[in-house]
């Protein structure tokens, strides 16, 4: 459960409405794969990841980024029950995809950085704090069913 | 460790920060304390609610050290040796906190540079700042 004040919830709702979620996802996932290249280990089937340009332009990266952010957007509507919301995705990432949960934290941080890039001055320290709480909550929810 | 291209990204962004160390440093610390309140335990000399002047004073000192690191990327261990001693013997900041500071640094850069904060720039700064953190904690034991 993520504990956000009324002010934080309002800030998240307002600013999420100012960005294009479709772009955020691909951008964040692309940055994860470039800044932390070892994360590419989970994406052998994605084709050309050989350079920053290749990664950021890769259609599979963009498509998967969109899938991730759609799921994240859904999480924003269920902040009171992230563990329930992400329960089956957690099982999938453990049992089928075998993804180290550390990657959820890294990707969460990339989402925050991309939001900062798009929102500029509007991404104040308090807004950052609110979003970091959310991404941490989502990461924990995704790791919750690991065994 | 940093390629020529990565070094160029670091110095180009530093040229934008130079002269504004106090303001950038203050924002960095404010973000650190707001997002990760537990980090305040290392800054008790700034008081429970540091004001702008205190944040700028300490922030300026931290960014000045980053500036030293930028000038001496080839020679980080020697350049940061006194700071490494300080962190090992006096400050003893748990190494887990450096990634938190780096995340806030990236957010400062992203929010100010926006479209100029390309993935290549981000990657170079992440590598550079991580290298600085490694040097600062290397003498811990």
TrEMBL record, chain A:
One of its GO terms (biological process) is hydrogen peroxide catabolic process. Residues 3-147 form the Globin domain. Coiled coil: none annotated. One of its GO terms (molecular function) is heme binding. The keyword Iron applies. GO terms for cellular component: blood microparticle; haptoglobin-hemoglobin complex; hemoglobin complex. Keywords: Acetylation, Heme, Iron, Metal-binding, Oxygen transport, Transport. It comes from the Eukaryota. Involved in oxygen transport from the lung to the various peripheral tissues. Belongs to the globin family. This is Hemoglobin subunit beta. The lineage of its organism: Eukaryota, Metazoa, Chordata, Craniata, Vertebrata.
């Amino acid at each position: 459960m993520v504990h956000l004040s009324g002010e934080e919830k309002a800030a998240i709702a307002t600013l999420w409405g100012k960005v294009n979620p479709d772009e955020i996802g691909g951008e964040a996932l692309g940055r994860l794969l470039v800044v932390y290249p070892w994360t590419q280990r989970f994406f052998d089937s994605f084709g050309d990841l050989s350079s920053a340009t290749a990664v950021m332009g890769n259609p599979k990266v963009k498509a998967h980024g969109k899938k991730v952010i759609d799921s994240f957007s859904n999480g924003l509507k269920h902040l009171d029950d992230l563990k329930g919301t992400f329960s089956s995705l957690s099982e999938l990432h453990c049992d089928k995809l075998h993804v180290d949960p550390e990657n959820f934290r890294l990707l969460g941080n990339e989402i925050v950085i991309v939001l900062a890039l798009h929102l500029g001055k509007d991404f104040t320290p308090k807004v950052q704090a609110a979003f970091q709480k959310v991404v941490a909550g989502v990461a924990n929810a995704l790791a919750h069913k690991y065994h | 460790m940093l390629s020529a291209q990565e070094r160029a990204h670091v110095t180009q962004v530093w040229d934008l920060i130079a002269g504004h160390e106090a303001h950038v440093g203050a924002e960095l610390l404010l973000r650190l304390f707001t997002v990760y309140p537990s980090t305040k335990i290392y800054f008790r000399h700034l008081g429970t609610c540091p004001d702008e002047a205190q944040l700028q004073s300490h922030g300026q000192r931290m960014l000045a050290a980053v500036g030293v690191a930028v000038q001496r990327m080839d020679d980080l261990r020697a350049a940061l040796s006194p700071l490494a001693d300080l962190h090992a013997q006096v400050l003893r900041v748990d190494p887990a906190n450096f990634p938190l500071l780096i995340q806030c640094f990236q957010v400062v850069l992203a929010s100010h540079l926006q479209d100029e904060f390309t993935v290549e720039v981000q990657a170079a700064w992440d590598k550079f700042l991580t290298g600085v953190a490694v040097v600062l904690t290397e003498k811990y034991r």
